[in-house]
Amino acid sequence: MADTTTGAATGHAMATHAPTGHGAHGHHPRLQHHFYSMEQQLEASTLGMWVFLVTEIMFFGGLFMAYIVYRTMYPLAWVESSRELNVLMGGTNTAVLICSSLTMVLAVRCAQVGSRKGLVTSLIATILLGSVFLVVKFFEYKAKFAHGLVPGPYWDPHAVAADGTLQRITLPFGSEIFFALYFIMTGIHAAHMIVGIGLMTVILVMSAKGRFSAEYYNPVEISGLYWHFVDIVWIFLFPLLYLLGYHLGNVG
Amino acid sequence: MSTPDTERHSYLDAPYGLKAWLLTKDHKRIAMLYLMSITVFFAIGGMFAAGIRIELLTPKGDFVTADLYNKLFTMHGIVMIFFFLIPSIPATLGNFLIPIMCGTKDLAFPRINLLSWYLYVAGGVILLSVVAMGGVDTGWTFYTPYSSTASITNVSLAATGAFVAGFSSILTGFNFIVTIHRMRAPGLTWFRLPLFVWAHYATSLVMILGTPVVAITLTLIVAERTLHLGIFDPRVGGDPVLFQHLFWFYSHPAVYIMILPGMGVMSELVSAMSRKQVFGYSFVAFSSLAIAVIGFLVWGHHLFVSSQSAYAGLVFSIITMLVAVPSAVKTFNWAATMYKGSVSWESPTFWVVGFMGLFAIGGLTGLFLATMGLDIALHDTYFVVAHFHYIMVGGAIMAFMGGLHFWWPKMTGRMFNETFAKISAVLVFLGFNLTFFPQFILGYMGMPRRYYAYPDEFQVLNVASSLGASILALGYLLPAIYFTYSLVKGKAAPANPWGAKGLEWTIPSPPPTFNFDRDVVVTEPAYDYNPSREVHVG
């Protein structure tokens, strides 16, 4: 029976939450009250990030579904439009992101072995590489606007010749959808990059303050998972958007 | 009797005040915050429904204009689905009970749990601002190209509201999954978990896998309206039917977000009220997962008349019928649990029995609609309206009310008036049937949904339906009164007023802030009502 209610005052809950409770019981100061152990806390937060990433996969999944449907409907438009994208810039960004994943792994490793200096350096490198990606992306977008490759009322694809004259380009029907998807997919990806850089900045500040140790580095690890996920989305976006024209050869 | 000593340590009393409540990380307090907010939205959604039923009293469109009528049924749908039904059981009863049933102090991520409530409120505020600016007229389904290009109402803002509320639902599901995987007390194996937890696990899977898809779909609508990125615009080659696929990929499974937690509540109530172990525990547990999985493969039955190929329709039709199998497993197992059990006719039992009757009708009429040939005749008629209200109101809300009565003493520490509770259950059951059964006949006779006027020969049944709706409203108003009264004058609840099994009944009512006074170790299966094996519990 449950008539032990008067025991509430003297029970476990009170003892662990007394001011000196944590130290007296040998609990790590970063162990939250509702977990039994640091291992359980790490397992829960890691699983949490994985579950969150599953929701992210489904979120991007809707866009990839739309991509598949329209690519099947307008294959020619897809090839022709893909050629309008700047492979050099896209390729550079791919390399930049792969390097940022490396620095992220190094950050987690440094956290595991308790090297605060290595952790801070790796995080700064990761943030810088992420920023380089966004700067390149900005110039790419700017070029698309300059060439009228923006769906909607300002859709007017053209090339600018060396003498400054405009040469109108005729893209097949369906190309506006390609560019709509291009902007939404890369735009949402870029938004995730911005969130990632913000996250890394927080982690950087925490690291500089010495909040992490070999016993407690969950935030570094799970932020790293997020960072790798955002990279992997780009690894899919790059060939699907930029390399299609090359891959499918000289159609049209 | 509860002593002052226990009162002081209950979660309701420990640090008191508005700030302590609004910044709480306690899953029980967040559940109460959710309970209050969804009640507000239930009332708002109910008022929109009242507008619809008043208009349909007479064949001519006279109470409201056609435009306003469109807005009424749209807002009724959006409010009731995104702001009441989806959070109803998971965010209140689920939030309150899952950590306790798992034998732990809180959900895995208490701060994210609070964030989920704030997102819900933010989405709600956005939606109410849409109402203040005149509402939306697209139907809750936001079908393109009407929503993306034609409608001149605040579609973007309403879609944003649903988007934000969707994230609150994702965070709830996310928290449940991690909690159920990682936070169970020692000895609490998967097959010792209450079926309520299994049902919420299945629901959470649907929440995290489906909701992001509708989030991106609504984002695309907003992008099309504001940035002219015409993903669904036929003028640039877009396909409006793609929207329907993406929308129903979430919104059909969303039906299971609404009903699966209700089924979890039912398993607890049937067992406790019959003083008997649930018949076929593992079948009931796995049927929840089966419903969640099959539920993702049936969305095409909403597109039987939307230019989908007949072969695709055939496959979707067959898979849809398969959902009936796990649903029937549950229904028969509940009936088998009650059979030869010592059923006590207390108020939760009334809601249980009401659920079983209404859910059976709702489920069986679903088979009519899954049959492609029949659906072509019944599509977009009142038959469909009646069918899904039998599932959502007759199923989900009956279960929610049953669960609320069952766990109210645990949540608040107060007993409510049993007689009024029984009267309310009977009123809801009768009022509900009078409201929605005539709609099956109306639909079969050919009355289409979403019209504000109708031919004269449909009037008698429509008047019956509106009459039923007012009885139904009374049936929902009554609990609001006696529950509120119980908070002020109700008798103090003992730890286990129903004589039920389960970890939540081993702790005081209302529970202390950290739920358990000591670390929990579970040594027995769920629903261990068999007296020959009874052992001393805590």
Describe this structure in words.
The complex is a heterodimer of chains A (252) and B (538). Helices cover 69% and strands 2% of the residues of chain A. Chain A has nine helices and two strands. Chain A has a two-stranded antiparallel sheet. By secondary structure, chain B is mainly alpha-helical. Helix content of chain B is 67%, strand content 0%. Chain B contains 17 helices and no strands. Chain B has helices at residues 4-8, 18-22, 27-55, 66-101, 110-132, 146-150, 155-182, 195-227, 240-274, 281-295, 310-322, 324-338, 347-370, 372-378, 382-412, 418-445, 459-489. Classes of the chains: A mainly alpha (252), B mainly alpha (538). At the A-B interface, helix 3 and helix 7 of A face helix 7, helix 8 and helix 9 of B.
Number of continuous helical runs of chain B? 17
Number of DSSP-assigned strands of chain B: 0
What structural class do helix, strand and pairing data of chain A support?
Answer: mainly alpha
Q: What's the CATH H-level homologous superfamily of chain B?
A: Cytochrome c oxidase-like, subunit I domain
Classify the fold: give the CATH topology of chain B: Cytochrome C Oxidase, Chain A
| Beta-strand proportion of chain B | under 5%
The tally of structural domains of chain A comes to 1
Q: What are the secondary-structure elements of chain B, in order, as H or E?
A: HHHHHHHHHHHHHHHHH
Mean pLDDT of chain A: 87
CATH class of chain B: Mainly Alpha
| Overall pLDDT confidence of chain B | 93
Spatial separation of the terminal alpha carbons of chain B:
19 Å
Count interface residues per chain for the largest interface: A-B, 51 and 60 residues
Oligomer: heterodimer
